[in-house]
Amino acid sequence: MPEGDTIHYAASKIRPVLEGHVPDSIETPHPRFGRDRWPEKLAGRAVRSVDAHGKHLFLRFEGGLTIHSHLRMTGKWRTRAADWPTPRNTWLIIRRGNMLVAQINGPVLELMTDSRTRFDRRLAMLGPDILAPELDERGILRRLREDDPTRTIGDALLDQRILAGIGNLWKVEGCFAAEIDPWRKTGDVSDEEVLKILRITRPRMQRSARDGMQDRFKEVYGTVGQNCPRCGALSKIRSRGQGDDNRITYWCPRCQH
């Protein structure tokens, strides 16, 4: 799942290949980029930084040019040996030495030419990153309490304007681990309960961001109809679409309150 931990993991792999270096070549094989001339615009420019914030990744080049990516549900970043056969749906290939960095099937990929203004504006719209070096708990709670109190907590956790980085999998697993019903209205969820979800979820995402092994944290995601890992045969995991995007939520009706 391309959630915040996936993006931070991708950035950690890309950084040693590109950061501080001028790429040997940049290719945009997808036809949609045919007239954009990215190779010419970025030629000879070093990558100043590789930044992740929530589900967004930024490759910042010298001269104020920034490649911005959001993978949504279908995209992938890959860091591979230079002779790796890139898939047909690859949108971007950046080569340096014996390595390449590729973005595959990523719905949002753009070159920002007015980087500082647009970069700052994009970040300003996002809530605090759950994987930031220091978690801004007060900022998250303030944004949550300014939101609609009748909204369910499961839906609110997915709002990147409140908290950046959590996707559907981590919403499900965080609420389950904290024993919080994802269908409760945010106005009925205390600050302490919200922070319990975040403080359980954050270290798990941090571990996944380091080693890319997200699946080991799945307890209830995708297990509809199976016995609850906590209640056993006393309760079955349920599922139902939640929020405007109808994202499937999995929960135990017995031990999540």
UniProtKB/TrEMBL annotation:
Transmembrane parts of this sequence: none
Annotated ranges, domain Formamidopyrimidine-DNA glycosylase catalytic: 2-120
EC number(s) reported in the record: 4.2.99.18
Superkingdom, natural source: Bacteria
Residue span, FPG-type domain: 219-257
MF GO annotations: class I DNA-(apurinic or apyrimidinic site) endonuclease activity; damaged DNA binding; oxidized pyrimidine nucleobase lesion DNA N-glycosylase activity; zinc ion binding
GO aspect biological process, one term: base-excision repair
Keywords: DNA damage, DNA repair, DNA-binding, Endonuclease, Glycosidase, Hydrolase, Lyase, Metal-binding, Multifunctional enzyme, Nuclease, Zinc, Zinc-finger
Family classification: Belongs to the FPG family.
Name by which UniProt lists this protein: DNA-(apurinic or apyrimidinic site) lyase
Lineage of producing organism: Bacteria, Bacillati, Actinomycetota, Thermoleophilia, Solirubrobacterales
